[in-house]
Amino acid sequence: MTEASRLHWSGVFGFGWCEIGRYDLAEPLFREALRKPDAAPLVYEQLADALEHLRRLPEALETTRIGLARFPMHPGITLVRGRILRRMDDHDQAQAALHEVIHSPAASAATKTAAFYELGHLREGQGRYAEAFSAFTQAKAIQKKEEARYVALWHESQAVVANADFLPTQEDFVRFAEAAQPLHDPSRRIAFLVGCPRSGTSLLERVLEAHPGLVSASETSTFGSEVWGPLLASLNAERKIEGMGDALRRITIAQLKAARETHWSLLPDVLEQPVDGRLVLDKNPSALAILSVIKCIHPEAPMLVARRDPRALLWSCYTQPFKVNAESAAFFDLETASAHIATMMKNWTTLRERIAHPWREVWYENLVKDLPGEARGVLEFLGLPWREEVLGYHERTDLVRSPSYAQASQPVYDKSLEMWRNYEEFLTPFTQPLLPFLQDA
Questions:
Q1: What does the pLDDT look like over 336-354, one tens digit per residue?
Q2: For residues 277-300, average pLDDT
Q3: Among 12-16, 107-111, 199-203, which range has the highest average pLDDT?
Q4: Least confident window among 153-167, 303-317, 335-349, 419-433
Q5: Domain ranges of the chain
């Protein structure tokens, strides 16, 4: 392999590591790729992005400066520079960079969308909430136009998910637990952390994974894609499935055992380290949609369900640049966002009356107001002793792979608890479906 080819492939592999959130492994590869005389501007953009995720903001900013010196006004590099400047509280320069991207004829729709989101968060930080909401709405308008196919997919799934009659019954969950009981191995300990997006799962995970007796599989789709996906396909091949309850009732003891073994066998690779007798926390907010599957295959596993004031969820989900898929397409406008959150909450509040313990709700508001008390209660629920170091979760230097990486690396703060009220005039017309879920908020 020639030197030029080697440097080219360094960049390619760097992009691959970024796709799965391993910015620590991507960074040295991008630096290698930049040794190539004709290195593409995307390498500068991705290196700066990786450094920003690694919380090395001055280095990230310097990388954008060098990149823009070689490729003036490049939209991607300029966008990353704007985000870094916003995080460093240089509002004037951040605004100038973001406006440059928004008005650039060379910027793609995705890049302009990201710039509008950044501008929205910049305006929010300045207390200019009407302007912030306008920027977020402009980002949504681009996404809705460009990603209309995902909106259609969301509507299709909503028609099924919103029907609580398709959920397993209390009797079903009793049978699931009885079927799995002989398969339980006390040496294999796993718990699950689920919840609507922006409900505080990343904060709770960061606190818990500071405990030496726990290891977290963060934001992975392993259970859904590698365990439930193939099993569902085989069940559906027999005859058409009529909802989740129907699907789960068809699972045989042999299939149940195979699913549990498959999931456990995949965990060391997902964790990128051996389990070594620790409790595994499988954290994925999206898994709330398949919670009944989890409680069928792992009925003995403790279940943590993150909760938050649904009005705050509506605001927060609307303002986030989620990777577009059939779930996040719900957040393109406030009406569908409200419907999506209401459906998820309806499903959970229905299931919590049917599933057997152990499960525990963890309210974001309580976590912020009394972190020591909530952390102690959750650890006790998980069967772990109290360790003081969980309160210093923000001092850890390990990589945060969650989309909430910037917030999850900070000490606990309460400024977002009531932030939604600054947008109340925009949210109120869409909050009616959420009101039933305020009673225990």
A1: 999 999 999 999 999 999 9
A2: 92
A3: 107-111
A4: 153-167
A5: 40-146, 151-437
pTM here is 0.89
Confidence of residue 259 (pLDDT cuts 50, 70, 90): very high
- 18-69 pLDDT, tens per residue? 988 889 999 999 999 999 888 999 999 999 999 999 999 999 999 999 999 9
Tell me which CATH code domain 40-146 carries.
1.25.40.10
Lookup result for tokens 């029907």? 163
pLDDT of residue 133 exceeding 60, the answer is yes
Would you state the CATH architecture of domain 151-437?
3-Layer(aba) Sandwich (3.40)
In CATH terms, are 40-146 and 151-437 the same topology? Answer: no
